[in-house]
Amino acid sequence: MRILLVEDDAMIGRAVLDLLRSENYATDWVRDGDAADAALQSERYDLVLLDLGLPRADGLQVLRSLRARRDSVPVLVATARDAVGDRVAGLDAGADDYIVKPYDTDELLARVRALLRRSAGRAEPLISHKGLELNPATKQASLNGQPLALSAREWVVLEPMLQRPGVVFSRTQLEEKLYGWKDEVSSNAVEVYVHGLRKKLGADFIKTVRGLGYVVPRE
Ligand code: CA
Fold it and tell me: How much distance in Å is there from the Cα of 125 to the middle of ligand 1?
């Protein structure tokens, strides 16, 4: 999953960046509204964590122009504890949820998981398909009731496909979930992880769609 973190405070930004990356979210960090606008228009994200008080364009402006472009990416707005007006304005401008600063990190991660789940059209916290079950909160997997060991990167490649069986993901789309801008992407990384997943899940669990990408078939 790929997240854009918009935060102008260097200390908070660094801490949240480290937190999200430690949970294997490919996270990009920008520090002002203009940079957020630019990133949102050039990259695809699964979620935006948006501070409202920002230099250049403020968070509400970023959010309004995002929704004016009909971009439906989930947005979690960060506000100060006493700023009820900000929370209302954020939600009314198209935010999906808010979190109060200073963050409780467990709450932040739980809200991130909830939004990612909802945006994938699921209400239930477990992702399951054909005997395979992923628990994004505990990062535990099982296959036909038996615990299954997945590497962090295998998980990152598998989770989006498992959330949307029948949807073809291009190699680029899966690469984007693995890495932020600053990281090296080795050209065959996705193939390597898919290969590893097939060994664990069975050769047909993930199908290659020639020229298009990969899919977890619906049936
Ligand atoms: Ca701020």
Answer: 31
C-alpha 214 to ligand 1 mean position (Å): 39
Most distant CA pair in the chain, distance = 54
* Contact call for residues 26 and 112 (beta carbons, < 8 A): no
How many A from CA of 12 to the centre of ligand 1? 9
Could you please report the per-residue DSSP string of 164-197?
STT--B-HHHHHHHH--TTS---TTHHHHHHHHH
Measured in angstroms, how far is the CA atom of residue 117 from the centroid of ligand 1?
Answer: 27
Going along the chain from its start, the domains and CATH numbers come out as 2-119 (3.40.50.2300), 127-215 (1.10.10.10)
The rounded Å distance from CA 116 to ligand 1 centre is 24
pLDDT in 10s for each residue of the chain, 219 residues: 899 999 999 999 999 999 999 999 999 999 999 999 999 999 999 999 999 999 998 999 999 999 999 999 999 999 887 788 999 999 999 999 999 998 899 999 999 999 999 988 888 889 999 999 999 989 999 999 999 999 988 999 999 999 999 999 999 899 888 876 556 667 788 999 999 999 999 999 999 999 999 999 998
